[in-house]
Amino acid sequence: MGNLWNFMNSHDIDSDTTSRLVRKLNEMTELDSYIESVALDDKVSIQAAEEVSRSLGQDVSPEMLGQAMEQVKRDRHRFEAPKSFSYGLAKTYASRSKIWRTIRLPILGLATLTAIVYGGVTAAKKLSLSRRESQVEQLVAGQYESQRAIPAEIEKILNSPFIDDLTQKERTDLNGKVQSARSELSKADEFLSKYAPEGNPKEAVTKGNMDFVANQSSIIGQEINTASGYLLEARKHIEKARSLAQSKNTLESLVPGLSSSTAPATLIEKARREYNSGIRAINERNESDAIKNTAAFKGTMLAIDETEKLIIEAERDYSRIEKTVREDSVRNAIANVYQTFRKNSELGRIEDVRKEAEEISYVARVLPLDLNVKVVGGTWMCPVEYETENGGCRPTPEDAKTWYLNVHAVDGSGKVVPLRIFSSRNGNVRETDIWGERVEKNQYQEVGRDKTSDGVVDNDKFGRKRSGYLTIERESVYPNKGQINKVYKK
Question: What is the pLDDT of residue 99?
Fold first, then answer.
């Protein structure tokens, strides 16, 4: 300490300031160790040190405070791994013998600045203690709320409308789980009543007992978790009973529809098998099989309803087609589609039934129409061998390109009517309001010149689809050389 007096005198520090610094340093030398589990918080300590500096009337720069803080940490403390309740806090020990041998800092001197920082560290310790106390209070309050919720959950389980559906074995197990939960809960009652009365730990938890409360609360937390685990197991019995009851209600609500169904026998028999399997699973308390068979039965009943509707619609549409069709190839083709539709209906092949019913519906809708097919533009297509992976086209010689006129069909009012077009390029069928008819290059160029003049194709007649027919009658200059069902509209 004499060295420190000499240092202060040599730097012309007045006696009043010297006395105050000595008091601070005396406080510093009385510190043997920091309170266990309280870490050094640089930011808080620097802020507190600045307050101490202002109280001493000294102007200390942030840089000097930072250097002093590093000196304090480097020469006074070593940190060990945390061993207490709050993770992330360190146990800090003080070693007073070294700091005074290394104090060297211009202007105010490291001794003075270290004293200021020490005041900040002390303030930070007090703040950290308050934070720790607050954390413990929050922990205990949270456990109180968790513990209070458990009795309500027990009552909810015991008063469930599905509890009477349990077997004797399931009921016995449920009661055992509930009793175990209550037993675990009783262990926590005394502790929480003392340290969180009515859920308020503010008065009960203090700096003097917070470590004890924190340690005990870890045990209490385990007891609450164990109680919750027992209730989770008890709840499973209720949820299983609820699921089985729901499956049974679904089966019983749908099965009457079978007696009045006009669906094919194959579908009805399939539905009865699934119903019987579902009921058997329920009686055997097999939840997974009950859910599986109930879902299958529900799906089959939906298929039955849809099939009944599609059969009615397809029969009506087919009757209309028979009265309207004048083209033998169409008559024969749609008759085959209808027979396949009936066969797939009997077999319960709902996906195929949908497709065939839609095709019958399309023919019934379009066959009676009288349509004019008109040219609206043109496009050229890249040969397959010139296509790129992303659908583009490499530079293509003129004689390798294929040329198409863009056409559409309109009724007497000028309304465009989508038609199903087979693509000779890729073999698929697509319903579209505009498609391409392959032509010679000179025909493509002629239409291009026609449209370029005013934006409209004046000589737009391509062909006609008469009522009772699906085949388009073409103008003689446009022989059938193939179609594409996806074009650029230009």
Answer: 31
Using CA of residue 199, residue 203, residue 206, residue 212, what is the dihedral sign?
negative
Question: Distance between CA 60 and CA 50 in Å, rounded?
Answer: 8
Number of domains in the chain: 4
Q: Is 377 left (phi over 0), alpha (psi -120 to 50) or beta?
A: left
- Which structural domain range is residue 262 located in? 249-305
Token reading at 160: 């469930």
d(CA 415, CA 319): 26
Cα separation, 358 vs 19, whole angstroms: 102
CA dihedral sign, ordered 264, 268, 269, 270: positive
Compute φ and ψ for 483, nearest 5 degrees: -130, 160
Return the SS3 of 60: coil
How high is the mean pLDDT in each 10-residue block of the chain (490 residues)?
46 53 48 36 57 54 60 46 34 32 35 46 58 82 85 92 94 94 86 85 83 84 88 94 96 92 90 96 96 96 93 96 96 97 91 96 97 93 80 80 94 95 90 94 91 88 96 93 78
**466 and 407 fall within a common domain:** yes
Residue 243 counted as domain residue: no
Question: Looking at the structure, do residues 54 and 177 belong to the same domain, yes or no?
Answer: yes
Residues 25 and 105 in one domain: yes
Is 132 a member of any domain? Answer: yes
